[in-house]
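Q: Predict the assembly, please.
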Amino acid sequence: MKLLNLLTTLYLLLTLATLLVGGVFIYQKLESEIDFELGMELERQIDAFAGRIAQGIDPEALQSERLEIKVLPSEMEEESLSLRDTIAYHDPMNRAEKQLKASKSVKIDGRHYRISYFNLVVETEDITETVVYTMLIVLLVQLLAVVFFFRSISNRILRPFQHTLGKIQQFSFQKNQPLVLEQTNIREFAQLNQFLERMSAKLLKDYRQIKEFSENISHEIHTPSAVIRGKLEHLMNLEITEEQAHLIHSAYQNNEKIHRIVKSLALLAKLENEEFEQPEPVNLTQLIKSNLEMLQELIQLRGIELQSAISKPITVPMHPHVAEIMINNILSNAIKHNQANGWIKVELTEKELVVKNSGKTLQSKPNDLLERFQKESQNPDSVGLGLAIVQQICKTYGFDFSYESESQVHVMRIRF
Amino acid sequence: MKILLVEDNPELTQNICQYLSQQGLLCEAVATLYEAEDRILSFDYDCILLDLMLPDGNGLQLLQTIKTAHPQWNVLIISAKDALDDRLKGLDLGADDYLPKPFHLAELLARIRAIFRRSKLGGSDMLEFNEIQINHQSLEVTVLGKLLDLTKKEFDLLVFLLTNKNKVLSKQAIATHLWGDYTDDLANFDFVYQHIKNLRKKICAAGGKDYLTTVYGLGYKFDSNAS
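A: Predicted assembly structure:
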């Protein structure tokens, strides 16, 4: 929902509620005010009639349909003015109407009269009509004002906000430019802009640092690791005892593991930072074929049966080097985690690449294996980054990677 | 064969020079572009091993100088910068190969030999050792005149072992050589062992000596003194 629409709706609801409550009050106030005024008027009339009776006019002669004079026992106390609604015949309208009846008793010359005088009341419906009518007009004016306000004025007020929003959407790490936002006099927006500018600068700085780190780490760790490897390779070639050989072997294996981890992490960082150049069409069919050829002997050595359906030439936009890593990882994963005399099925269509292989039943959830450093294999030399790399590659190029496993069948699927 | 190593890390320099000279190559080393230019002016080399990140500049500059002055010299770039850009730029500028660091010393030697074979001998040389003959052009191996039926990987493996004869080659070095850098963890899955086993069987079946030996589970070597 747009902010403006939300504000408009809320404002109108609030106005409506206010008008309703206000209407009720106005209605009540109006009614009591009218009754009060009318009562006063009727009392004046009664007083006038009482005056005329006092002047000696026969009360009988004064009687009319609006005036009722009744003689009360003289020992009764005088009644003060009382008002009540009643239904009485109204001559001009020729029907019974709701009327207000004012009664008061007076003692004139030792005689006690109760004088009641009727008059038409303003009808409730009339009051209601008036109130509703007025309120509707107010509502209409409000509506027009609100529409005008939100469509023109608030658009102007919110413009810095819209501008900021647009700038944020355009923000990208590749451009490597911090946000520069418009100056605004509205304090909240100014604060927001200031904060965003600071944050974007900080983000870029952190990003650069991580980028530099991932660039440097391959150099900084690879070099000592290469030195260690070289020294160990020399050591291997000296006259050594079996015990020494085991020590060298263990050190060597672990150094190799460091090397693989750093290499894989550097690759992951590079993928995450989208540091690879523009994708170009890569012929996956050819790539898979050449990879299978390279791994063919391994497949044969393990007695694995390979079935492939990859005849049609399929191209996808990728960086060639990255595509190779992806295919390599998937295929070697299918070989490594296979079992003797198992099978691999490779299927490539325009929509997806599916690699199925036989293998041990998984102990952990298939999705967990996509996480970094999660591995099923008991082999301590296996790092557990292979599928994480495949997943990151797929994420980078907008492919959908899934890994499923049902008892002894493992399915890796990439949807383009 | 005379090699000039341009590398600023002294430990690495020592590793490389020691290994190459043990294998009969003449190796000189310098640590800066400045020194390298100086050497290039006054001496003659077959192959330059060039690191790209040097304290006084980028090795690609030197590559240009070498290729203009001595187009017949081979250049092998060794760099920790695994950036594809550098790799392509280097090869564009005339480098013969690009070996990302860290590499196995055996791999370095194999690459140097391969470059040398390609450029100096037109790829036609025969690698011979006692009863074994390897023809690089036809990818054929004969033992005592008998042709061996080797797969492509077994051929590569034999060349790799023989090039680094009498050196212990780790499973990782062999796996990297055979399947590339990103599949080197295949080394831990016995594939190397099975290749070695098959190769050994084939050589012995043809009447060759059992040159391929296992060294305490560390790796394998081509033992020229095998009986």
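Chain A has three domains: 3-127, 188-272, 280-415. Helices of chain A lie at 3-54, 59-62, 124-170, 187-236, 242-272, 284-301, 320-336, 386-396.
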